[in-house]
Structure formats: C-alpha cells, structure tokens
Amino acid sequence: MERFFDKELDKFRSDLSIMGAKAIEQVRKVTEALVEHDVELAQKVRDADNEVDELEKQIDAEAIRYMTLRNPVASELRLVVVGMKASHDLERVADEATNIAKRIPRIAEEKPLKDYIDLPRMSEIAIEMLDDALEALFSNDLEKAKAVLLRDKEVDRLDKQLYRELSGFMLENPKVTTVALELMFISRSLERIADHAGNIAEEVIFLIHGKDVRHTPVKKILKED
Amino acid sequence: MNDSTETLQQTPEITRKEMDNPDKTDFRQDYISFRNYNFYYGATQVLFEVNLDIPERQVTALIGPSGCGKSTLLRNINRMNDLVDGIRHEGELLIDGTSAYDPTVEVISLRKRIGMVFQKSNPFAKSIYENVVYGLRVAGRKKKSTLDEAVETSLRRAALWDEVKDRLGESAFGLSGGQMQRLCIARAIANNPEIILMDEPCSALDPVATGKIEDLIHDLKKEYTIVIVTHNMQQAARVSDRTAFFYLGKLIEYDETEKMFMNPAQKQTEDYVRGRFG
What we know:
Chain A is mostly helical. Chain A is built from seven helices and no strands. By secondary structure, chain B is of the alpha/beta class. In chain B, strand 4 and strand 5 (98-99) form a beta hairpin. Chain B starts with 31 loop residues before the first strand and ends in a 5-residue tail after the last helix.
C-alpha cells in the first residue's frame, strides 16, 4: 500500500544520489587538476565543497524529520539510517578531494617527479567503487556491494607502492621531499576515498540484510550470504 | 457565559476561500481561535485559560492523557457540549473571525459548517447512498442528480468510491470497519463543511485501515481545516502539521508537529511524547 509520505523517501533517495554525484564530481575534478597542474580548477573544487556540506545537512534533516514524523521500521528504518551514514561518508569523500585540492598549488610550482600514473589510477578505482556502492545502495544489489569491498585492496596496494616509490625519491634527492610528501598525502586521501566507498558498501549490506559487517574481514563477509 | 438558546436568526454567510490556492500562507492562521477560554461541567473546570489558534486547511492534532480536556475542546468547536446540562464557558471561541457563541450564529448552521467523525464509526441503518445524502436530505435537497453527484464526489474524496460504487444501495453495515469510517467521513463532507473534527477516528481500526484514513486526512486538508484528537503519538506525528499538548485542562505546548516530537520546549511534553508520563 502506498502512503502519502512515500514521496518523502523518494526525495531522500534522490538527494542522496545528487550528493553522491557531486562528491564523485569533486574527486574527478581534483584528479584532473592534479594531472593537468590546473590550480584554478583545484580552487573550484575547494569552492564547491560547501555544496556537499549543505547536502549532508539537508539529508540529515530529512532523515531526522522522517524518523520523527513517519515512524519508519524494518527496511525503511534501515534505509534512513544507512542514508545518513552514507551522506557522512560522501561528505568525507568531498573533504578528501578538498584536501588534495589544497596541495595542488604547492606541487604545481615544482618540477614533476614523474608522470602521474598511479594516482589517477587510484582515483579511477575509487570513483568506480563509489559509483558501484551507490548503485548497490539504490538498487539493493548485494553482489555489487560485496564487489566494492573486494576492490579496496587494489587501492591499498597502489598506495603502499607509491609510498615506497616516493620514499625512494626522497632518499635519492632530499630536495624533492616537499613534493614527495605532498604526493604521499594525496595518495593517502585517495586511499581514504576508497575506504569511504567501502564503508558505503558495508552499509548497503546492513540495508539489505540488517547485518552489521563493519570491522569484519572481507573474506568472511564474502563467504556469508 | 454560554447561551444555549438557539436564535432563529441566520448565520452570517461566510464564503469559503478559493479551493485551488495551494499557498497555505494565504490562509488564516487563526481559523479556529480559542482566547482565554475556560470551560466548566457544573462546578468542575475542565479547560483553563486556553489560548489556541488553529490554522486553516491544516491538520491540528490534540494530544494528552485521558481527561486532559482535548475531547472537550474539540466538542466546543461545534458546540456539541451544548447538549450537556450545566456547562458554561468563559472567554472567546472564534471561527473564521466570528464568535461561535455570537447571538447571530445559529448552532445548527454552525454545525453544518463543521463535520465530525467519531471513534466508533456510526453509519445509519440505511444504504451507503442514503448515509451520504442524509444531511442533504435534512437540508431539503431532493433533486436526484444533485444527490447523485454529491454521493460520487463525497465518496471519491473519502477514497471509498471505487470500493462501493457498485453497491450503493446496499446496507452500510455490510462494509468493513475501515470502510464504515470512510463512509462517515464521506457523510461529513457531503454537506460541504469547512472544518472536520475527528475524535480518535482510527482507534478501532487495523493498521491497514488506519493507514488509509491517515492518507485520506492528508488529502482532505487541501480543502478542509482538520482537528484530530488522538492517543496514538505516531499517528499525530504522521498526519498533523501542528500539535497541541494538553494536561489537566491546560494547553502545555503548541507548535509545529516536527518541533513537538523532535525538540519540545516543555519537559511535560517531552515526557508525554516519549511515553514516560507519570
């Protein structure tokens, strides 16, 4: 039976989807700014962060209102709770994009250490993970959510690889320390963005099964239904 | 003081606002207005200095523990308490700016402007059709096409038409509890009232029938000012725009429903909506 307030949940989903698209766009743009040494674009990313912040507040307000007035239970309650958590993750994703944007002017002035290959690759995977996690959320797709969890390792591996490589550059030539450190932080930000995608995927599993899989080894999660 | 003698003078005709105006800010915020209102059953005072403005075309919920005066307040709006011996009131009750106790206001005319739905559905021992047109027949309407139209319109507004259109001539007692309650709502709105009062309209219904009535209430507020008494906190939260909390005959707090249920200003309200009263 449809209820008169069902459209409020539709709007909640839709706002979450808009926020997801906005957060992903921030990651995409900041990666482009990094690769292209585009300081102006980096500034645009910083300027747009408050839009994502506002969406987080709006989604929280919608969720609290829905819980206050509509008395959601079962899967509907889980959706509202998961939506709030996912919006927090998305806000953190946009914050990491802003952190990267802040570092771009500092490295844009310096000579590049090497071509950017791993960082854009990490960004690409993180964006795919975010896309998939959100799609899993909106379509209740358990398999897709699990697949996102599996991909987190790829990003972790690239982050560690970059860490070793950049450490090597610093040992070889201490003059590049500043740039290398900035790149390490950027790598860590991208790794965190992928972590947030993983969080959303875990939240989707809670949404579908009501089971809290946080802090559980991925292998064990994948074995379970 | 209450003057229970009904005058024969005509009620001043009050024109209903344009129905299709979706902007609620254009509507009166004090459509029903209690001002310094006290009410007594004999020597017992049951309402104390109530000041309450009920906005037009919104749903206002009256909540509070049993005996708090919420039903008494509701029944003052259509002067149903006039039927009780020994009642009296002090202060003012204005409906769309006119005193409900104005000597020029005939109580029958007042009640025509105000439909009422009770806790237990109370269809008459008549057909579905005759239940809906009862008020119109009493008012002297006879033309079949007018009555037919009123039946269809009212049943449609009460979200019952599709379920009963093929059996309008059958007894109303053959309907389910939820359908009977919607029939009573159809009967109330057939007279084209401005206000609908509801006294625990869902307490005898199962969750599905309750859901239908709640959706209907939400729909009806586009055209009517609705005041609902309910013991069901979740229902008050779901259907109303504003909520008034009464305790021991006093209006403790009155605000937007979201505020009342999320962050009430008074501790008594907080305790009551959390179910930790007393």
